[in-house]
Amino acid sequence: MAVKKMGLKQKYAHLTRGLDWETSYQKMDDVFPYDQFEGIKITDWSKWEDPFRLTMDAYWKFQAEKERKLYAVIDAFAQNNGQLNVSDARYINVLKLFLTGVSPLEYQAHRGFAFTGRHMRGVGPRIAAQMQSLDELRHFQTQAHTISHYNKFFDGIAEFQHMHDRVWYLSVPKSFFDDARAAGPFEFMIAIGFAFEYVLTNLLFVPFMSGAAYNGDMSTVTFGFSAQSDESRHMTLGIEVIKFLLEQHPDNLPIVQKWVDKWFWRGFKVLGLVAMMMDYMLPKKVMSWKEAWEIYFTEAGGSLFTDLERYGLKVPKYADVATEMAEHISHQNWAVFYQYTHAAAFHTWTPDKEHLDWLSEKYPNTFDKYYRPRWEMWAKMDEEGKRFYNMALPQLCQTCQIPMAYTEPGDPTQIAFRCTEWNGEMYHFCSDGCKDIFDDEPEKYAQSWLPVHQIFQGNCGGPTVPDVLNWYRLNVGADNMDYVGSPDEQVWNSWKGKAPAEAAE
What we know:
two-stranded antiparallel ribbon; Ribonucleotide Reductase, subunit A; 3% strand; 61% helix; mainly alpha
């Protein structure tokens, strides 16, 4: 008699439930010590459902096919000098920010999901975490391979791994994942699988890939498409984690709500880098950060939390503050980087009149009133040969590690400032959300490695700015400073046959 072929559901059952076992000579709590200390209560691990039910043989087949297509495009892009077809060399600074700030996070996610998969005693989530760990490693590799093409022609890309561990502004995304990986396995799943992958990923990848396409960077678009099916799987894992925990025991709800509040706020602050990229760094604009926030959080996120209301889960705390900040965050971030670009691994520039007019149109309630005068003043200083660089070291928020440049909710003329005294020390914060996170776990955040503090203590290469930039491995004058007059601009103008005067128009 012919053996009946198993269906996908049966295959997945054998892959997961069929591999589980109860320990005999060691206690289960000793083998899996991490999945109980957070207070989460699991009554039945078998209730875990993975909507994709992806088996290993199918996984490798799908990924191999995507690899073949991706690298065919990358090779064609390189052979046809695709770098000549981007909208402008200013766009390359988006890739510099992405490669130094985001790509290493994919590797962090790979390590985090591998650890989490090992420490979940339920075999279903273990398999799901293993799959995502493999995905994240592949994403890091494809991003590094894609952007490496630009390293042949532009500055500020070669030392991205070294810079990620040291450069001041890169401590913002790095601290996000350090924070998540230093948490327990369930909090890690909420932080990355739900808050980042489900609630906030669209605000990172969709605008970024759209911006790449609109600015002629087809190799980057292709790695985005290659990752998209993986991201769909990650999003379903994120929502499954939430539903699974909330259905297991009512005592899990307040713990999960606290994590959702925390990681929404931490993720929102990291995404300020994307806001700046969308509003200021793309030569050809796709949409404003405010528009993206309305589409991908206010509307899509609102529908998500409406669906989750039946579990008792509420919209994250301070979501209304984040929505108000969507009017301001990109302008305030670009102003910080404009002042400190002498210590950054990418170039900044003063927006021209056409760009300012676009910002006025997209932010009619705030831009002309609060931000346009500042840019016009800095542009005038630039014309007079007094390009503004801030040589002071900024105060940093203890939680998100961003310079204290954000303003009070409801009053864009006042810098927001909060503080907490703990163990005889004073700690400073840029927002109520960051203060709340610290106050809940002061022992953890008091240990934060704040770049400015470390510079003052002499732990970053030496006491002078040149010492610190050398420790960063910044090639001064090429990797940093204003775009105008940079080697990147010069090589671009030579490719396009532009004389310096013509390029300045």
